DNA sequence: GGTTCTTGCCTAGACGCCCTAGGAAAGACT
DNA sequence: AGTCTTTCCTAGGGCGTCTAGGCAAGAACC
């Protein structure tokens, strides 16, 4: 019988595609095996188990996403960089809902630390904020605010939590603009009540 | 054989408790039945199926949550009201991770519209924002920004996405303070570029 | 108090998904 | 050609969802 030519890489990419189509929660080894024309037991040579597969999708998505963001941010600074970062983030989340959902799973802290994508994400994010002249611990607070807003908006938009009344893109643009103003006038740590 | 005394209400509450303990994604009818000392098929008299159960948990959680928020906001205005709203929101999400996760599932728009909790949520939220004097469509944009930040922060905190370095409560307080400033200086629609 | 009716919980069973153990054969290497 | 490695297989157990049909607990009636 001709072999399907599976590799861990191919399996994970196919799983990520499947996630984008049917939703991350509905990714199953059975469905994936069906897609390859293979029995589900065969996949266990390439992936430890379902949890391992999910983690691998998360790392794949994280790497893809930060690549797109880094490219968008390159050569920009200040509000320009922030807007580029935000739009690239949201576009990835909308284009790849399954992959994006994967990035939100709980990942072992030490495992995450060893990933180049995580380091790169921190680097790009903090780099983008450099123009605002914040120092620690303000910087961490600001990053947390940004991540929260970006993720929250995309998550809510993806689940259809926003009514259709007002254009979703416009609200996004204005939210990002508001964040820019917030960053410019960020109260320094000493002034916290 | 003595009956377990199941009702839809009791089943849903037990399911919500189970969700808080093991995570919303791991709520199963089997586990729930086990908890009641009952066969899983028995639950189908009280709940249509797993999806129905999940939706009911979501409505329960949504109602509980807005009750807590409304109580916290009552009698406050401006920054006070915003902080009370935000803290009540976050506390609920942290105390009841499973219930909170349930509120994030996709719910049929018309089904949601018929829920009193949804109307109440809109009422309380828009009421809290009254002090900032915003009109539509700015109001909708502002609500979307608030929801995004609140949800994003809680979701990231819940999945352990924030490193342990900086106190999570402090970052939250400062994020809420930043939102207050943003709302006070919200650029009116006409001035949008 | 007995009879009837409703309905709560049951058994039985189909089907899907996760995962392990062990076997067969395709393709690489000598 | 013979050997080795690796890929994919079959077989099977465990757990989860869900349906169909049955029995008996407890309420409702006489």
From TrEMBL, chains A, B:
Location of the DNA-binding region in this protein: 28-47
GO molecular function, a single term: DNA binding
Domain HTH tetR-type: 5-65
Pfam families: TetR_C_33, TetR_N
Keywords: DNA-binding, Transcription, Transcription regulation
Highest taxon above the source species: Bacteria
Keyword Transcription: yes
UniProt keyword DNA-binding present: yes
Protein name as annotated: Transcriptional regulator
Species annotation: Streptomyces aurantiacus
Taxonomy of the source species: Bacteria, Bacillati, Actinomycetota, Actinomycetes, Kitasatosporales
